[in-house]
Amino acid sequence: MLTGERLARLQQLWEDNEAHDHHVATRAEKRLTITPQTGRFLYQLSRTRRARITLEIGTSSGYSTLWLALAAQAHKGQVVSVDHSAHKIALAHANLQAFALEPVVTLHADDAFAVLANTADESVDLLFLDADRQRYPGYWPEITRILAPGALLVMDNALSHVEECAPFVQAVLATRGYLAETYPIGKGQFVILKDL
């Protein structure tokens, strides 16, 4: 449940992350946090879907992971999150500890392809995609395999990075059985329903 105290802590963490990113030079050092509006949207989708298994590709510092974990905790789901950076996984772990959410989340410092390949068919109810956008089209065949019928996929940056996201969007729209729409929330959320 999103109490006022938790919402205030999430807002403060976002502000701290934004301030941090303003003062660092390289992308690898940035925390690249989703907006609080996007966090609330993910929370709503997870709670509505009652996602048993949520997969996040692109943990970064774990801000989005917190929103997904809070939703999963409320309906006894689990979150699996992967990022190639061990440093960012460590930051995410610290944030999860601060919110007492470690039991809800499994973190992987690994390549997303490896995690996708080891995920069971039709086992994922919600997938949040917020990583290296050039790799998304390559993920798509594995994603279609692991999404459960009625599952949702949310891709961040659909409006802030339209050109980078275009090949993935085209691949999705060309696949039968998937309904997709872009919502002007945060940096733009491309939401896909596996309508099979």
Automatic annotation (TrEMBL):
GO terms for molecular function: methyltransferase activity. It comes from the Bacteria. The keyword Transcription does not apply. Gene3D superfamilies: Vaccinia Virus protein VP39. Keywords: Methyltransferase, S-adenosyl-L-methionine, Transferase. Its EC number is 2.1.1.-. Pfam families: Methyltransf_3 (PF01596). It is an enzyme of class 2 (transferase). Signal peptide: none annotated. PROSITE patterns: SAM_OMT_I (PS51682). PANTHER family: PUTATIVE (AFU_ORTHOLOGUE AFUA_6G01830)-RELATED (PTHR43167). This is Class I SAM-dependent methyltransferase. It comes from Vogesella indigofera.
